[in-house]
Amino acid sequence: MFCVLDFVGQYLTDCYLEETDYVEKKNQGYVGKLQEYVKQKELSTRDTGKLNAWVKKQQLLFIRVYKDEIQVFNSEFPEQEIWEEEIAADNYAWESYYKVEFSDGMAEVTITGAYIYQFYNYVMIAEMILSFFLFLVLVLLGIRRKMDYIRTLCNEIQILEGGSLEHKITVKGKDELSELAEGLDSMRLSFGSLIRQEAEMVQENQRIVTEMSHDLRTPVTSIMLYTEILKKGKYKSDVQFKEYLDKIDLNAHRMKQLTDHLFEYSLIAGEGEIELEEPEQYEVMFYDFFSETCSFLEQKGFQVVFHVDWVDCVVQISTDYVMRILDNVASNIVKYADPSAPVKISSVEEGHMVGFSFENKVQRLEEKPESTGIGIQNMKNMMQKMGGRSVAEKEGERFKLVLLFPCLER
Predict the structure, then answer these.
(1) Which residues cross the membrane (predicted)?
(2) What confidence score (pLDDT) does residue 264 get?
(3) Among 250, 268, 286, where does a domain finish?
(4) Is the pTM of this model over 0.85?
(5) 366 and 312 in a common domain
(6) Do 290 and 380 reside in the same domain of the chain?
């Protein structure tokens, strides 16, 4: 803006000076002042001290005085007695000569003033003032916009403080404030996700406790019933006595199994971040685990169909967790699977994850064993802590469990 104003100001100033007699008017004005000063002080052409004093008061002004075509005063050389040198008048065409009456006669005076330079300075000062006010207006408008944005962020933070985490933080611009707003919005999403996870965990815990309480009630009731019968001696024979003892023992083992599952669930849920072992080849990590699992299932009378393609990649796991997961899988197969149908173990790949699937047929029993699903939940929790995923599917008599582990590099 200053460059534009300076160009326009220079042009308009040049036009004004060319089309008007600005310099002539200024010269005549100073000639009038000089004539009044000479008349008041009754100066002669040789009173150079007083003439020089008057020139200094005017500022940016130079005069030369000629008498009888001889230069008698030059304000550029105030201390010299020029009339003794008898310097003749130059009579330049571009100079104007003005008559001034001194006490010793009429003299001619030429005046040279820095009027144009001063005029250009005034124009430049005006340009700088206008540019500064423009700068000030733009800065104030920018500050006002930022202050409005800060007030908006303050209001939105108050909304978040009130508990409304669904309200999105406004992100505008690409400066430090917008980065702060993005950080606040990310924190809002993370906090909301954390609250949802905590709510889901509480809900899951309540469900587990409710189902466990219901499942524990059945064997406890049976134990109390058969214990009461035995205490009162209401059995017909030793055979019936032994049958009641066996039922008490069976229900006690069921209770122990349920409480073990509950203890394992609380233990896993209470653990923080686990430290995974050093990365290792996929086949090296899991080959021995599956060898033991397949041998165990075959000893229990199951036919195992093992079809795994060992992918050339590196995984990072917790050996303790993997052992507990496979033990849980094997015990569930023994407990729920139909021995007449084969157990299929195959490899699975999904994106950057690799793993295994276990598929079996669910056996049909008149008396179904108690199942709270806490074992599946334990496996899911352990897989999540290792960065993996566990998916259980059941369609009719077919049950399928998929375990996926993150592949670090291929």
Answers:
(1) 119-143
(2) 64
(3) 268
(4) no
(5) yes
(6) yes
